Each structure stands twice: as C-alpha cells, then as structure tokens.
C-alpha cells in the first residue's frame, strides 16, 4: 500500500537545511509514512479539511493523505517544541 509522497517547497527547504542533523531521520519517517499512511504518528489530530497534524520523531508535521489518489502530502514541518 505504498503512497506517492509530495513535500511542499517550504518543507523541502526545512528538511534540506537539516540533512546533516535530524532531518535525515525525519525524511526516513516520512518515507515510512508513505509506505503505511494509516500508521498513527506519535501524536495526532485532524482538522475539518482532512489535514492531519502530528508529531513525527521530534517534529510537528501537517500532512494530508489522499487514499483515492494514493498520495501523502507533507504541507508543513517545524520543531515540535516550537508550536
């Protein structure tokens, strides 16, 4: 059940700035989420638009899963302790 993963340009900049840090761990977790999008993050809630807000590793991510199109869209990522 692998889904295509799309990352917004802003999130990509955030991840690329941290490639030598914890960003590689977060990229791995995003890839794992794409392989199993029904997996629950460490903490999650959703809004009325179907976007999931969740903590993945030490980061707070906003993402949307489109099961019909088999897509995982990462919309925003920031440090969990900064929300």
Shape: globular
Order the strands across the largest sheet as they lie in space.
Answer: 1-5-4-3-2
CATH topology-level fold name = YaeB-like fold
Oligomer: single chain
What are the defining features of this structure?
83 residues; 37% strand; YaeB-like fold; alpha+beta
If you had to describe this structure to a student in words, what would you say it looks like?
17% of the residues are buried. Helices cover 25% and strands 37% of the residues. With 83 residues, it is of the alpha+beta class. The chain has helices spanning 9-16, 23-35; strands at residues 4-7, 43-46, 51-56, 59-66, 71-79.
Summed up, what is this model?
With 83 residues, the protein is α+β, with helices and mostly antiparallel strands. Helices cover 25% and strands 37% of the residues.
List the helices and strands and how they pair.
Blueprint: E1 4-7, H1 9-16, H2 23-35, E2 43-46, E3 51-56, E4 59-66, E5 71-79
């Amino acid at each position: 059940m692998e889904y295509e993963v799309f990352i917004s340009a802003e999130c990509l900049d955030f991840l690329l700035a941290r490639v030598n840090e914890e960003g590689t761990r977060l990229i791995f977790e995003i890839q794992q989420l794409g392989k199993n999008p029904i997996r629950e993050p460490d903490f999650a809630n959703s809004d009325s638009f179907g976007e999931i807000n969740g903590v993945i590793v030490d980061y707070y991510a906003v993402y949307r899963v489109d099961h019909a199109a088999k897509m995982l869209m990462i919309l925003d990522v920031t440090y969990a302790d900064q929300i």
